[in-house]
Design a protein that fits this description.
alpha/beta; Immunoglobulin-like; TIM Barrel; 2 domains; nine-stranded mixed sheet; eight-stranded parallel beta barrel; 22 strands
């Protein structure tokens, strides 16, 4: 059910009795040359499905699909289980809640496989809190999950794990240590842990990670990964308005070597994937070089986490050069949202095609530069873009209207689906070779899935029709017409 919010601005409306689904009609392995095409565009198509058959004749610019040259393996695509997301989801009736979760996680939806969990509070909470506010409790004897975990995060994650088919890969990220552990005695503002790596506050903070992992495991939720700190540069800013904690790469390196790495190992948690940075790629490759100057740190760390907020000024070579230097460490995009910049005219822009296109552009750019997956921020926000205790409102792929017991699926939601539904975990990026250079508004990326199907995602940000001929030597040419301001996902089996 499309609803218009101005020219070319459409959302799909879902409620307790109705929600659109994605057609699950992959071509049969036996259908030689058959392919599925899914299209979303500025005119209101949303993952609209059609079939086609490969041709012996090409139309348009030829692109060789070379599945024999492979790059990084994909971890997944998804979003974050924040307090705000839980509050909004639970503001809906039971049936509408079910439709919302099914939209993201079911085989009729876009089948997210990745989820981020804030460790205690963040700005998308209703107030700051930690898991142990008892001053001087270095052994964390008073550590306990907050009401917010028990009410807004854990039940929703459990429901997703119990109800839907695909496995959920979850990782935790802390915004701040308890105030008593910090130099400024506050979870916000400019401050670091007291003392230095190896000291009592750093040991206690490492134990906090262990207890978080154990507490979630006790609730039947295994955590796959951890980032060392959300946006470590925020905590170096005077009067930073919400939860933050400052780190230099050298501090993070020494904390991992002396405290966090050993704590995970001693508690049989060494298989948890530890990620560094969790901030703008502007910090790369410098941050990685400082941390990985220690062989010991390299032993404990599996990956590098990046946020999208400064991508418009940070060149993609930051990613590819980091991969080249440290090919054994994966790079994962762990946070993104639209409407976060001071110059954004509106925090929530219902139906904005441009915001969907911005997502697609960034995801393809990341994937073509060795990033292994992409995590959106809040999976659901209210009409204002909250709740957020410091009024740092932003946009989300799903916006909840609790008054009418309905929710709105934005273009960003469907753009995420063009990747999350079709590029399965374990897929390998493959080489795509255009016969001539493509205009900058045309972007392409391709994958070989574990089931041997090929997936290509094509984006046209321009106002012109573009014709491309994907050449798979085993089946011929797949000729596609990319409409203005459209994204297409193509899926087929090589013969």
């Amino acid at each position: 059910m499309l609803k218009e919010f101005g020219a070319d601005a459409y959302v799909c409306v879902c409620n307790s009795t109705y929600c659109d689904t994605v057609e699950n009609t992959e071509p049969q392995k036996s259908s030689k040359g058959g392919y599925s095409l899914y299209q979303s565009d500025i005119t209101g198509n949303r993952l609209t499905h059609s079939y086609g058959t490969a041709s012996k004749q090409k139309q348009g610019i030829e692109i060789l699909v070379n599945k024999n040259t492979t790059f990084q393996s994909i971890i997944g695509f998804g979003g974050a289980f924040t307090d705000a997301a839980g509050i909004n989801i639970q503001s809906l009736s039971a049936n509408t809640q079910r439709n919302l979760l099914a939209s993201y996680y079911s085989t009729d939806g876009i089948e997210y496989t990745l989820g981020r969990i804030p460790m205690a509070s963040c700005d998308f909470s209703t107030h700051p809190y930690s898991y142990d506010d008892t001053d001087g409790d270095f052994n964390l004897t008073k550590f306990s999950l907050a009401q917010e975990d028990l009410k807004y995060k854990i039940p929703i994650i459990q429901a997703v794990m119990k109800t839907f088919k695909r496995n959920l890969t979850l990782f935790g990220s802390p915004w701040s240590a308890p105030a008593w552990m910090k130099t400024n005695k506050n979870m916000t503002g400019k401050g670091t842990l007291i003392g230095e790596p190896g000291g009592p506050y750093f040991k206690s903070w490492a134990l906090y990670f262990v207890k978080f992992l154990q507490a979630y495991a006790d609730n039947g939720i295994p955590i796959w990964g951890l980032t060392g700190q959300n946006e470590p540069t925020d905590g170096m800013i005077t009067n930073f308005p919400f939860q933050a904690m400052g780190w230099t790469p050298e501090m993070q390196r020494d904390f991992i070597v002396k405290d966090l790495g050993p704590a995970l190992q001693q508690n049989s948690l060494s298989d948890v994937k530890l990620m560094i940075l969790d901030d703008s790629r502007l910090q790369l490759p410098y941050w990685a070089e400082q941390v990985f100057s220690s062989e010991e740190a390299r032993k404990y760390v599996s990956g590098i986490a990046v946020h999208w907020y400064e991508d418009f000024v940070a060149p993609t070579v930051a990613l590819s050069s980091t991969h080249k230097e440290f090919p054994d460490k994966f790079i994962l995009a762990t946070e993104a949202c639209a409407g976060s910049m001071p110059w954004d005219p509106s925090k929530v822009a219902l139906g904005s095609w441009k915001r969907g296109e911005d997502y697609a552009h960034d995801i393809i750019q990341d994937l073509n530069n060795f990033v292994c997956g992409w995590t959106d921020w809040n999976i659901a926000l209210d009409m204002e873009g909250g709740p957020n205790w410091v009024k740092n409102f932003v946009d989300s792929p799903i916006i909840v209207n609790a008054k009418t017991d309905e929710f709105y699926k934005q273009p960003m939601f469907y753009v995420m689906g063009h990747f999350s539904k079709f590029i399965l975990p374990g897929s390998m990026r493959i080489e795509l070779v255009p016969s001539q250079s493509l205009q900058k508004d045309i972007q392409i990326v391709g994958f070989l899935r574990p089931d041997k199907a090929i997936v290509c995602v094509l984006l046209n940000k321009s106002g012109r029709n573009v014709t491309l001929a994907l050449r798979d030597p085993s089946i011929g040419y797949i000729n596609v017409n990319l409409k203005p301001h459209s994204i297409q996902t193509l899926l087929w089996w090589p013969s």
